[in-house]
From TrEMBL:
GO biological process, one term: homocysteine catabolic process
Gene Ontology CC: one annotated term: cytoplasm
Highest taxon of the lineage: Bacteria
GO molecular function, one term: cysteine-type aminopeptidase activity
Assigned keywords, A-Z: Aminopeptidase, Hydrolase, Protease, Signal, Thiol protease
Species the sequence originates in: Balneicella halophila
Protein name: Aminopeptidase
Keyword Transmembrane attributed: no
Length: 463
């Protein structure tokens, strides 16, 4: 009996010890508390400072402020700052901002902008069609399948990348800002998108049921067309109906009137852009979490059913810089995107990895590199802007500049200057004309892309 009792006690103690493994006990707590000494004068001062002040003001490096300089060796002839307001259309504004300088120069204008509202209408409409087509494609998969779950969770949004802009422009053309001006909804998209997402999820469930029944393909497509009719109505009520054709004339910087012409959106785009070919531009990406010199394609990451997915060539940062410098020297702005809120001084329009010193204030090291930040969702591209300037010293880049789309009052008169070291850490992608890329790198573009899933931590769309 004693042996049995002893065995029971032993097992109970062993199970109790096992169950407590990993918990925080008194001994562990005593060790943890050594990191904070409430009686230390410096610790008291830090506690008072942090608990009573804005931390960003406390970590702002006074020493680093002396390095702020908004002058550049080479700068694209950009004019006018745009404002995306409370919308996630930065990728669209950036795509158009890349084109604007050449049009302003071509027609000798004081300023010019395209209608973002026009292209935004078609972006949301096409994304809805893509979503419904995906539900038809995956109708036989269960709701908890990764692809189906991702679609219903993400549905649609304002975000996009360069291929989103080129897909829309090639299919729907472009129109001047005056032809389809902004509305309150296009500037503040939250509520309209919320309602459209709700309707799409409802429609997605219905079309899955239709697609899995013994129904003809025509019946499925007819159901989808009816659903898209509801989406079209919501968009028209909020944004206005896109024009099929319009009359327009240019007025140059001296006030001279051009002749009125009747355009379609496609004919207008072809006239103002001339021989511009979207296929001449390639996205270069710096993602150190993956092998360099490889082509990648993000599955189902597009806005138009028949359009191109997000495709890019992964390169070291220094290679991308070399090609970007050539583009700027030739007065050609570039679509670019980055993790904009990292180490940004919004008041000065200046980003540098030394702007804010959290380590000195807290006495805690933050040591992840770029690849580790990507893999753990700590960093990724969050915003697209137009890359327009570079400052060189001994032929090496010292700093760069973005033309932003947050209005002229943001940053440095609407622009954002960033150091070359910040480029290395927080720049992710740049779209460059192939003519500025060397022959060896162009060969990599012929590879068959490695297909990656849209939920990968690297692939956040620009907002």
């Amino acid at each position: 009996m004693r042996k049995i009792a002893f065995l029971i006690v032993f097992i109970s103690l062993w199970l109790s010890s096992y169950a407590q493994e990993g918990t925080i006990g008194k001994e562990q707590m005593r060790e943890i508390k050594k990191s904070y000494n409430a009686n230390d004068p410096a610790t008291k001062a830090l506690t008072n400072a942090l608990s009573n002040n804005d931390v960003m003001k406390l970590v702002l490096s006074r020493e680093n402020l002396s390095t702020v300089d908004h002058n550049f060796t080479y700068r694209v002839n950009a004019k006018g700052i745009t404002d995306q307001k409370s919308s996630g259309r930065c990728w669209m504004f950036t795509g158009m901002n890349v084109l604007r300088p050449s049009i302003i120069e071509k027609y000798q204008l004081s300023n010019f902008d395209f209608s973002h509202n026009y292209l935004y209408f078609w972006d949301i409409f096409e994304k809805c069609n893509l979503f419904l087509e995906a539900q038809i494609k995956y109708a036989n998969l269960p709701m908890d399948d990764k692809s189906v779950d991702h679609l219903f969770r993400s549905t649609i949004g304002d975000g996009g990348v360069w291929n989103s802009f080129s897909n829309l422009a090639e299919k729907y053309g472009l129109v001047p800002e005056q032809v389809m001006p902004e509305t309150n909804t296009s500037n503040n998209t939250h509520w309209m998108l919320k309602l459209i997402k709700r309707k799409l999820r409802e429609d997605g469930l219905e079309i899955r049921n239709i697609a899995t029944s013994k129904t003809s393909k025509n019946a499925i497509q007819n159901a989808k067309i009816k659903m898209l009719g509801d989406i079209y109505r919501i968009l028209c009520l909020n944004l206005g109906e896109p024009p099929a054709e319009f009359d327009y004339r240019f007025v140059d910087k001296n006030g001279k009137l051009g002749e009125y012409k009747t355009y379609t959106p496609i004919s207008f785009m072809k006239e103002v852009l001339g021989d511009y070919d979207f296929s001449n531009y390639v996205m270069l990406m710096n993602d150190p979490s993956r092998p360099y010199f490889k082509m990648y394609e993000i599955d189902y990451d597009r806005n138009v059913m028949e359009g191109k997915n997000w495709i890019y060539l992964n390169l070291p940062s220094d290679d991308i810089k070399k090609f970007a410098i050539e583009s700027i020297k030739n007065n050609e702005a570039m679509y670019a995107s980055c993790d904009v809120n990292k180490q940004i001084n919004k008041d000065l329009g200046y980003s540098d990895i030394y702007n804010y010193d959290f380590e000195s204030l807290y006495g805690v090291e933050f040591g992840m590199n770029k690849a580790q930040r990507i893999k753990t969702y700590d960093s990724g591209s969050t915003h697209a802007m137009t890359l327009i300037a570079v400052d060189l010293k001994d032929d090496k880049p010292v700093k760069w500049q973005f033309e932003n789309s947050w209005g002229a009052s943001a940053g440095h008169n609407g622009y954002l200057t960033f150091t070359d070291k910040w480029f290395d850490e927080y720049m992710f992608r740049v779209v460059i004309n192939k003519k500025y890329i060397d022959a060896k790198t162009l060969e990599y573009l012929n590879q068959k892309p490695i297909v990656l899933p849209p939920w990968d931590p690297m692939f956040r769309e620009d907002y």
